[in-house]
Each structure stands twice: as C-alpha cells, then as structure tokens.
C-alpha cells in the first residue's frame, strides 16, 4: 500500500511538474535586444563596423537613424550636423551624398575605425535587412518634407511590407510623420518615441495608428507599460548605457530594449 501511495504521489508530482513547465513556457516573454545605432558602445555609431558588431553580439534588431542629403539621398546618421561623428562640419542637408561619403565617420571614436563611412539607407537595407530586424528612426522628419514616402518606397521596393512579424519598425518623436507613414504603408508597424510619462488620452490617440509606444528608460514604470499594453501596443525602452539602467528595466514586461552595450541585456 505504501509503495502504491509513493507511486501515486510520484506520478502526481510529474504531472504537476509537466503542466507547470508547459504553462511557464507558454507565457515566457520574448524581449527584443536592439543594438543602438549598431553597437554604439563599442564602435562608431551608424557605421558598417557598428552594425556588424551588433549582429555578432546577437542583436535581434539594429536601430538606425535616417536623414536626407542635399541631393535627396537617404543617409544613415543621427545628428542633423556632421560635426560630432565625422571630420567635417555643417548640416547633413548641406552636403551631397558623395560629399558625405568621403567623410571619415570612424576616427572620432578610435583610429582603429579610421575611414568608416556614412552609409546610405539602401545599403543598410540590402546588407542587413535579411539578417536582422530594423528599427528605423526618422530624425526630425519635418526638416525633410516627403521623407516618409521615400522610406516607404525603398521598403516596398524590397517587399518588406509583406514580410510581417514586425521585421521592420519605423519610429519618430513626430506623430504627424508617423501618421503619414502609416497611411502610406499600413502593413509596416510604426512607433512613437516619448521621453515623458504619457497620459491615458494621449495613449489612446496614439494607439489608433501606432503599434508601438517607445518610452525613454527613465519614464518606464509598471503603470506606463501596463497602460501601453492594455491599449494594444508594444513598448520598447531606450537607451540603456549602464548596468544600473539595465537592471531597472528587467523588472518590467518590455517588448524590447535598445542598448549601446547589448551584453548588458543578455
């Protein structure tokens, strides 16, 4: 009798264990690891070495920034000025693509990267979009009328609007820009960036056209993330640059974290 009782409880424990594991597995939260401007902590941002390093480190996505050159070419650079990340000075929009291409975009970070160049948007799509997801930020799109249509055309040309799975996400701080992009390519999710705690009304309005509401890490808390999720949107926090910041964000069910150092969010 004692043997039968032991067998019964062993079997019961096995069943409980099985279903417990099954339940835990089915609810496991998959968080995207997103390399900020590539691997900006280790390489000059928004350059091919930076993107390559991020992929080597297991990035799920590359976060990139786009603007327009003087001759209307979409280029990948963060600042509206070239001063900080190249050996030249002036506005991005005051240089042709060929002029931007000749600038040294690596030496400011380290002589090891001397000669790294400013990529075109088309090059980044062709070189990386089949290997990793892309989080594309339109920097101050109001400065570049029509950039939403240009981005949309480049993505549609490569059939990324049919890929699904949020493989491409387009984001900006400017809501009107993202509304325009959503109208042009409703199949590609858009995100609004915020650096302040949003209220309920604002979130509901954004949810009408956006799939993501991406908060700065400093405003992330349970109320904000729950509010975003309850309105049917996902949340990607930006930008982690220290272990302390990474540790804070681990307490919340974020859909992704953007980081200069991807090894902080492993």
Description:
With 266 residues, this protein is of the alpha/beta class. It has 2 domains: 1-29; 31-265, TIM Barrel (Alpha-Beta Barrel). Helix content is 34%, strand content 17%. It has 9 helices and 9 strands. The chain has helices spanning 2-26, 48-56, 97-101, 121-128, 147-157, 175-184, 200-206, 222-230, 243-249, and strands at residues 32-36, 61-68, 74-76, 133-138, 168-172, 190-194, 212-215, 236-240, 256-259. Strands 1, 2, 3, 4, 5, 6, 7, 8 and 9 form a 9-stranded mixed sheet that branches. Strand 4, helix 5 and strand 5 (168-172) form a beta-alpha-beta unit. The longest helix has 25 residues, at 2-26. The radius of gyration is 22 Å and the shape is globular.
Number of strands: 9
State the major sheet: 9 strands, mixed
Secondary-structure arrangement, i.e. CATH architecture of the largest domain:
Alpha-Beta Barrel
Please state roughly what percent of the residues sit in beta strands, choosing from under 5%, 5-15%, 15-25%, 25-35%, 35-45% or over 45%: 15-25%
Rg estimate, integer Å: 22 Å
Average pLDDT, all residues: 91
- The CATH homologous superfamily name of the largest domain equals Phosphatidylinositol (PI) phosphodiesterase
The level of helicity is 25-40%
Q: What is the element string, with H for helices and E for strands? A: HEHEEHHEHEHEHEHEHE
Number of helices: 9
Shape: globular
Unreliable residue stretches: 1-28
Gap between N and C termini? 50 Å
CATH topology of the largest domain: TIM Barrel
Structural class label: alpha/beta
InterPro entries: GP_PDE_dom, PLC-like_Pdiesterase_TIM-brl
Domain GP-PDE: 31-266
GO molecular function, one term: phosphoric diester hydrolase activity
Protein name: Glycerophosphoryl diester phosphodiesterase
């Amino acid at each position: 009798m004692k043997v039968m009782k032991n067998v019964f409880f062993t079997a019961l424990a096995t069943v409980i264990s099985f279903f417990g594991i099954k339940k835990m597995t089915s609810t496991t939260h998959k968080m995207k690891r997103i390399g900020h401007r590539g691997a900006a902590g280790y390489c000059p941002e928004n350059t091919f070495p930076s993107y390559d390093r991020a992929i080597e480190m297991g990035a799920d996505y590359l976060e990139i920034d786009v603007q327009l050159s003087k001759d209307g070419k979409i280029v990948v650079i963060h600042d509206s000025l070239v001063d900080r990340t190249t050996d030249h000075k002036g506005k991005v929009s005051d240089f042709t693509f060929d002029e931007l291409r000749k600038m040294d975009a690596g030496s400011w970070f380290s002589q090891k990267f001397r000669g790294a160049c400013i990529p075109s948007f088309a090059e980044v799509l062709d070189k990386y979009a089949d290997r990793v997801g892309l989080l594309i930020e339109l920097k101050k799109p109001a400065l570049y009328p029509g950039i939403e249509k240009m981005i949309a055309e480049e993505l549609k040309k490569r059939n990324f609007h049919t890929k699904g799975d949020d493989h491409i996400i387009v984001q900006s701080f400017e809501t009107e820009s993202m509304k325009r992009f959503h109208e042009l390519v409703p199949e590609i999710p858009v995100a609004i960036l915020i650096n302040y705690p949003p209220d309920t009304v604002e979130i509901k309005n954004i949810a009408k056209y956006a799939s993501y509401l991406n908060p700065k890490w400093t405003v992330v808390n349970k109320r904000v993330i729950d509010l975003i999720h309850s309105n049917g949107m996902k949340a990607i926090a930006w930008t982690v640059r220290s272990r302390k910041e990474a540790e804070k964000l681990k307490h919340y069910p974020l859909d992704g974290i953007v980081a200069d150092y991807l090894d902080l969010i492993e």
